[in-house]
Amino acid sequence: MYDRSVLPLAVRPLADRRARIGWSLCCLFPAIFLLFLFAVTALSAPEHDDFCFADLYARHGFVDTVSLFYRSQSGRVLALWLTQVPPAISAAAGVSLLSAYSGTMAVNAALFLAAAALVMVRAWPHTAALQLTFLTVAFAGVVVSAAPSVRDLLYWLSAVTCYVPPALITIWIVGECIRALDRQASFSWMLSLAMSLGGFAAALCNEFTGVWLLLIISASFGARQLLGQPRQIVHHIVIAAAIAIGWLIVVSASGNGTRMEQLPNGGHLTFSVLQALLDSLAGLGRFLREPAVIAWLAAVGLIALAEADPMPKVPQKSKLLALGTIATCLACGYFEYFAHRYATGMRLVERAQNQALILLLFGSTLAVRLLVGAYRSQLRERLTASAFRGLLGPVGMPASLMLLMAGSLSLSSTAFQVRSQWQDLYPYWRESAERHALLTTSSEPIIVIPRHRWTPSLLMTADVTANADRLPNDCIARYYHKSAVYAAAPPR
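The structure assignment produced for this chain is given below.
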């Protein structure tokens, strides 16, 4: 019998006032961190490709716009469809594109948090509600805090649609595969159908997610065979077939060849293989240097140590699953870097690195949980005999996690960016609203608009230029029915 201070979470008296207050406070800081960053979606504004999609939707509608891009630029069918949502809302509801755009980004942020909640609930089936709340907001907060580009994760729709939905679907599928392997369970046909539809949708978002998912499903099948569990061949084939169909739709687009012809540095196999290794190692180094990532993995280990799991663990099996999960995630990340380097000749863009970060963070979470679960009894005994035995107490644990997450999120790269730019966010949005009003109300066919005086990188990367024939000027002009749009110097 363990001492009260190290009893598993599920049997601790959570009704105890101190424990509830402790866990509520533990959730508070990451929740506030997320709430602020999600609230900033109200200040997001369309730019670059957003105006091109808005113009094409206004002239052609959903299907023809996707068809046009499929033939000329890209096969990312689902991403192309989702990027047209703001102009569709604007047209249907009679609201401005600016309002429809910020509303869409707010909904995307809410769906991101809901997806984080789903994967945490599935990954921690024996954990109480307050701990699950902490795991959800902390995981989402760490993703946002460590993201190579927060703008591309939350505030720019063209980037969000290509990489965030497939990342969330991928980690859900990874979680279901590991859950089944760890608990020696089988996929139900309902779950297999959901994984097939989710995998098909994710594969339609970009060129590499389909390969990721096929590798993950193959690893799931191989692990079942290695561990002597029911292989469920038909279930795995159905899921893999749906993913493969989605991936083939994307890579078969005639626009892919057109785009590659515009990038002459691509297509070098040996160079891409070696350079992708260096790129992926640099990305891994950045991942491991983020304070919030290290703090999160420590928090996961501590919660896993106190978790009540009625199923006995086989250490060897748990170690194999943990190592296999990390190896699969690293292989997926490397392939993403390689595919981009081979296709473009350039290093993987930050918006795509966001997807790799989400997968690696979730894979690391599962690996730590599996490893700690395999040696839970021994680790508890050692911790009980040490000076840190209070870490597993009903008050000591939430207090420790609160300090850990508050400190690490405050020191994250995103927190530094927000602190340096927060005063520029609203002025930037106000200038965007004034620009929209000018373009909407002016009857002049040729418009000169001032460049932004406030340029927070959290919300924007580039502005209009003096060249009316280049992006984004040309798309802005067409959407607002102008002959030309030129940039002027910002007012002093």
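Interim note for the steering committee: The chain is about 70% helix and 0% strand. Residues 1-7, 9-15 have pLDDT under 50 and may be disordered.
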